[in-house]
Amino acid sequence: MSKTRVLTGITTTGTPHLGNYLGAIRPAVQASRDHSLSSFFFLADFHALIKCHDPARVAQSTREIAATWLALGMDYNNAVFYRQSDIPEIPELTWVLTCLCSKGLMNRAHAYKAAVDENRNANKADLDDGVTMGLFSYPVLMAADILMFNGQKIPVGKDQIQHIEMARDIAGRFNHTFADLFTLPEAMVDENPLTISGLDGRKMSKSYDNTIPLFCSSDELRKLINQIHTDLREPGEPKDPDNSTIFELYSLFATDEEADAFRAKFFEGIAWGDAKTELFEYLDNYLSGPRARYNELMNDLGSLEQILKQGAEKARGYSVPLLQQVRESVGIRALDSTAAFGGEKKKKEKSAEQIAEEVERKKRASLMYILKPMLERVENAEDSAAEAKALIEEKEQKLLTLKKKTKQKAENELTLLKEELAQYL
Ligand code: TRP
Q1: Residue 251 lies in a domain
Q2: What is the pLDDT of residue 350?
Q3: Domain total for the chain?
Q4: Does residue 47 line the site of ligand 1, with CB under 6 A?
Q5: Atom 13 (ligand 1): residue with closest C-alpha?
């Protein structure tokens, strides 16, 4: 049995933070090392253009994300790790799919609807204010990302489930219209997604500006951890570990025993400053190995580029032949191509001619059953030719007296009879 193909993309707009690590990067790195899976991971830099028009930021985020994933042990020999924009087949497939995708489907996309709702709430006259075609049709690009590599399981957050459904829909439509080229993808959603608290206690998120970057310097890490909000309990006063971002972050990285020991210190009244120091030391130690590798990669962007280029080559081993099939099947072909592909092939399998032929064969078989005694009569007659002519005449006469429906049937009979008796007539 072939391996399950897992595929996911990471939009390159931000700097990876602890929340990204725990929620998406760590599980993906684990999957990349699993030899029972066929994993595809890519930097979705075309997607970045949808929300970010700051070229320096897109470029820098792409470097940072690539270096982060590799520093954390992404197995790029086992998995295919590439940059979306290195695969020219993706935008090309996007166009083909765009031509199949109904506008109505895109009208229902969450991201677009949210933008429209925002405009409505702000009483804007133009509900599409600020909506680019990129934002509007972005689920089609995402469908192309997935279908280009026949991704089967797509690990995504809940907010992306709709896009996977849309990719299925679009794939089905292509398969039906042209040729069965695409696997229908399925979303793989973690039912209990990890949300981790940021510096201010709200969910750690770029948009709240409350994140701890995964690979900031030790000094920066200490500074940020010192900013974590705490309550006003004095040193010596027992503290609630389950309402503390410090404890939460610690326990997400530590082993169970380490977390239990830290929890006990909260009950014993550890000072907030000391708790922060412990968290800092734990994280700094945990991250120091990968951080060193990260810095090495960030200081050797040529090698990083090389790794991505190799990944792209591997990925194009899949995308180039599949896109060729897509082109052929929709009719984008060399002028002298005689390929009858996809849709035509499909139709050919059940072309009108073939269906007619099949029906004809069946009809003939059942009519023969009726005609058999007549044919025998002719064959056994002394003058077969005279008998045949007489029979045909008799039938032709009868035809004149018949009504439409029965007439058709008799006509069919007669035609067949004439064919069968052709040698005598
Ligand atoms: N849109 C996804 C996100 O914002 C990223 C992404 C782009 C993606 N292409 C993809 C995820 C294909 C899975 C498959 O999270």
Answers
A1: yes
A2: 65
A3: 3
A4: yes
A5: 8
Q: Which atom of ligand 1 is nearest to the CA of 145?
A: 12
Give the per-residue pLDDT at 29.
95
Question: What are the pLDDT digits (tens) for 286-320?
Answer: 999 999 999 999 999 999 999 999 999 999 999 99
List, for the chain, all residue ranges whose pLDDT scores fall below the cut of 50.
342-343
Q: What is the pLDDT of residue 343?
A: 47
Here the tokens at position 356 are 């007619």
Q: Phi and psi at residue 178, in whole multiples of 5°?
A: -115, -70
State residue 422's pLDDT score.
80
Q: Tell me: do 322 and 374 sit in the same domain.
A: no
pTM for this structure?
A: 0.78
Say yes or no: 386 and 406 in one domain: yes
In tens, the pLDDT along 179-210 reads: 999 999 999 998 888 889 999 999 999 889 99
User: Ligand 1 mean position to 49 CA, how many Å?
Assistant: 13
- The response to whether residue 154 sits with its C-beta less than 6 Å from ligand 1 reads yes
Over its C-alpha atoms, the chain yields an Rg (Å, rounded) of: 35
Order of all β-strands in the sheet with 37-44: 80-83, 37-44, 4-11, 153-155, 186-188
Q: Crossing angle of helices 272-298/55-71, nearest 10°?
A: 100
Best of 93, 156, 319 for a ligand 1 pocket test (most atoms within 8 Å of beta carbon): 156
Distance 142 CA to ligand 1 centre (A): 6
Mutate to test the pocket of ligand 1, among 11, 140, 170 (most ligand atoms within 8 A of CB): 11
Mutate to test the pocket of ligand 1, among 20, 87, 135, 145 (most ligand atoms within 8 A of CB): 145
Residue minimizing CA distance to atom 10 of ligand 1: 9
User: Is the Cβ atom of 160 under 6 angstroms away from ligand 1?
Assistant: yes
In order, the DSSP letters of 75-109 are -TTTSEEEEGGG-THHHHHHHHHHTTS-HHHHHT-
CA–CA separation, 419 and 394 (whole Å): 16
Q: What distance in angstroms lies between residue 355's CA and the mean position of ligand 1's atoms?
A: 44
Residue 43 sits in the same domain as residue 176:
yes
410 is in which domain, residue-wise? 352-424
Pair 181, 325 in one domain: yes
**Which pLDDT belongs to residue 160?**
94
- Examine the domain organization and report whether 279 and 398 are in the same domain: no
The 3-state DSSP composition of the chain as helix, strand, coil percent (nearest 5) reads 65, 5, 30
Confidence at residue 382, expressed as pLDDT on a 0 to 100 scale? 86
